[in-house]
Design goal:
The chain has 237 residues and is mainly alpha-helical. It is built from ten helices and three strands.
Amino acid sequence: MNQPQLFTTRDTQPAKEPTKPLQLKEKAYLQLKKFLIQGHLVPGTLLSERKLAVELHMSNTPVRSAIERLESEGFLSISPQQGILVRRIEPSELENLFQVRLALETHVIQKLCSRPPEGLDQSLKNSLSQLSEEIANSPESLYHRESEFSLLPAMLLGNDEIIKILSSIGGRILQATLLISKSQNGNFPADAFKPNEDLLNAIASGDEELALSTIAQNLSNKKTVLVSALNSQAALN
């Protein structure tokens, strides 16, 4: 399988690296993750570390670090036989991701409702207003904005480790969502992915019971849509 061309470039060799390797590793990770989530690197694609380094204008070192990190997050698999492969997400894996997401978001909601931070209500309203405006101006950004929306409570709680895990899980779910929506030819039920104002209102008012039931139903709806679509695709293959 041919290596996908990510950039148009005249360079045939990786450029020399600046003197900030940690920043380069992060840049390589973010760029490759973006290509994976947006479907520029589709499941089943075999990747070459050397070619990716050329495309990203980097040496192999930061690219190798990014590949290892993306492997740990489930986007890639690496083996001596196959090399670097863009992984397909299986229905069972997607269900597991939603289970972990529900457990973490339940914890976040319980913490926020028990001790609401000062200004929580206004912060949530401002964030929802901004996301809604962006979606109205660019409907195709719905799934990206929903992924960002899901991080809002954790960000308000300020637990960096939970944010990191939810961001990783959200990336995999977003990748699956975008791939499935593109394959549905306009028949994808996008309403299930609109930001849920009721959830934010419940958190802001400290109504833990309502917030927990809302997030459980919200994630269940998303999971049902995506898992059903994956199962249907698997049956056709």
